TrEMBL record:
Source organism superkingdom: Bacteria
Keyword Zinc: no
Keyword Secreted: no
InterPro entries (UniProt xref): SBP (IPR006059)
Protein name: Extracellular solute-binding protein
Any Pfam family the entry gives: SBP_bac_1
Alphabetical keyword list: Signal, Transport
Signal peptide: 1-19
Family statement: Belongs to the bacterial solute-binding protein 1 family.
């Protein structure tokens, strides 16, 4: 099966579901309403068990407030990420969809294109802080041109620089670097201080970790339209933009000088490798601090030796743009109680609930990130990253795992000595074939 057919096959099920519904595609999707007529009713909401484990009190508070305002009860059905897309496809196809649901922000585009969600554009202004949503998280729930909204930001995660304070201090680096120049100087000292350690990485940058490589590209190019940008019904590539290539060269220079990550691996095993003691720094999600020191999978003795900062950028106080992952919330077009589902999402994402959630995860709006950073010292790095410029994958239903593989291959080839412009041109051509057909 060729790359384009593989991408189309990935959304076939939801397209069938869409064809069976009255909503058609995103262009003529059902318009959302906010209903408080819930006396004697019960709505069903699918949420990931991250909330059940992390912030169940937030969920309970939203349920109570919803009951008080509408008279309706809420049945929270806890989900896991494993095979979730398959379960959701089946529910949308069969007509047994919940009244509201959570999904990953990288999953949203295909359902939006298929018309599987109600159009929230008309009611979004009634959601707290909707004019201050985190840019990249908000974009994932919109059409590519940003004119319509079908999913509301829920919470986010950001990649940061996680480093060994003890190794940096032993090398004479006592203050966290604030710029790329300071980072390079610090890494030079750490590398020299550990020259006798076999396979030591002052900064572990495996060649196929394309998210980190592209973040450096974004540091020079900007965050809008990373990889490709929408121009009406057509996508145009940005990987070969000279400014993007310039940023990738910065990444390539760092990985050549300071990493033993190789050219055929990505970031999947970096936490375990860091726990073994021969890596001084990685670029990873904030929760990876805990993973490195996990008693089961890492080294608990490192717990107090780890710290994190937003990945420094070219100027002090301006981090390298971070990829912003996270979750969105939506109302299925076939929901039996779509108006009540939308009202639950309005309450679940209001300032009260999001401020409470900020103790555990990055909230959905810029004006609430300060509460997240104040909740724990470890939150400052990811909060700083989220407040800075962030980026997201091309917001297309035809973006697929094959495109990520293409980018991994391209950056791996660059790390192996390939010409950045030439390798990125190959990747750009392949990705655009998928996005444009």
């Amino acid at each position: 099966m060729n790359r384009k057919l593989a991408a189309v096959a990935a959304i076939a099920t939801v397209l069938v579901a869409s064809a069976c519904s009255s909503s058609g595609s995103s262009g003529d999707a059902k318009q959302a309403t906010l209903s408080k007529d819930g006396k004697g009713k019960k709505i069903t909401v699918w949420l990931m068990d991250d909330a059940q484990k992390g912030w169940p009190d937030v969920v309970e508070a939203a349920k109570k407030q919803f009951k008080d305002q509408t008279g309706a009860d809420v049945d929270i059905q806890w989900q896991t990420w494993t095979n979730y897309t398959t379960k959701l496809d089946t529910a949308l196809l069969s007509g047994n969809a919940p009244d509201a649901l959570e999904l990953g922000n990288t999953q949203a585009a295909k359902y939006i294109e298929a018309g599987s969600f109600v159009d929230l554009t008309g009611v979004k202004g009634q959601f707290d802080n909707s004019d201050k949503y985190l840019d990249s998280l908000a974009a994932s729930g919109q059409t590519p041109d940003g004119s319509k909204t079908y999913a509301i930001p829920y919470y986010a995660g950001a990649r940061v620089l996680i480093y060994r304070k003890d190794l940096f201090a032993a090398a004479g680096v006592t203050n966290p670097p604030t710029t790329l120049a300071e980072l390079k100087d610090a890494l030079t000292k750490v590398k020299a201080a550990n020259a006798s350690t076999p396979g030591f990485s002052a900064l572990y940058l495996p060649g196929q970790n394309w998210y980190t490589a592209a973040s450096f590209g974004a540091g020079s190019f900007g965050v809008k339209g990373i990889v490709a940008k929408s121009d009406g019904d057509k996508w145009t590539g940005t990987l070969t933009d000279p400014k993007f290539v310039e940023g990738v060269k910065v990444w390539n220079d760092l990985q050549k000088q300071f990493s033993t990550g190789g050219t055929t691996t990505d970031e999947a095993t970096q936490d375990a490798l860091m726990a073994k003691g021969n890596i001084a720094a990685i670029v990873g999600n904030g929760w990876e601090l805990g993973s490195v020191a996990d008693p089961k999978t890492g080294d608990p003795s490192l717990k107090d030796k780890l710290a994190s900062i937003a990945l420094p950028g070219t100027a002090a106080g301006t981090p390298t743009p971070a990829f912003l992952g996270g979750s969105d919330l939506a109302v299925p077009a076939k929901a039996a109680n779509a108006g009540l589902g939308a009202t639950f999402l309005q309450i679940f994402t209001n300032t009260q609930q999001q401020t409470a959630l900020a103790k555990f995860a990055i909230p959905n709006a810029k004006n609430l990130v300060a509460a997240y950073k104040a909740a724990a010292p470890a939150n400052k790095a990811t909060g700083d990253a989220a407040e800075g410029q962030t980026w997201f994958i091309p917001n297309s239903p035809l973006w697929s795992g094959a495109d990520e593989t293409t980018l991994k291959t391209a950056f791996g080839a660059i790390a192996a000595g390939g010409d950045p412009a030439a390798e990125l041109k190959k990747a750009e051509d392949a990705v655009l074939k998928d996005l444009n057909g």
